[in-house]
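Fold it.
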Amino acid sequence: MTAVDETLPTGWRGAWRAAHRPVAGVPRWARAVAHAIPFLVLPSGIWRIATVGFDVAGDGRHHGAADTTAGLPDPVYVTFLSVLSELLAFAALGLIAAWGEVFPRWIPILRGRRVPLPAAVIPAALGATILTVLWTTLAVQIGSGVTLQGTPLPDDFPTATLHGWRLGFFLATYAPLPLWGPLLTLLTIAYWRRRRTPAPHTRT
């Protein structure tokens, strides 16, 4: 029995491998991109949790969180937002793994059935578009110091209130996010092309 076998139950090990194992025909670059996306999103989540849990910003504000907390306590909302972002990033693996082509057995009724191509491509393409617009807009605002309407950024915007290493920390954690949308776009196109191409034994 290996060290992995001793530390990770068989069920969890199998689920982990199934979630990450690419299907046949996935190019190497797509594997690298799909595995990289969760790590691109992780730093911003760490920043948000660090501001609410440890006040690393030094001003008591929760930089990186939305203006509204949906009625939840700030720590709960920020943690939920960070976990949700990471789960959405992890979903990129579905564009290279088997569970993105065949519904897993834990899904009632649909288990074992083929995932319809539009059911995967349309949400992925829509998400990639939203992410590209959202994070590109934020990057432009941070770089220019003004909103897209040409007005100055709010006084409580992180780049206006943070200084020194705290500002550098914030910028470093959010810098990878503009890549999320374009990389997801590439994965979506690769997924669409792979699913559209029949397997060699089915070609006429």
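The radius of gyration is 20 Å.
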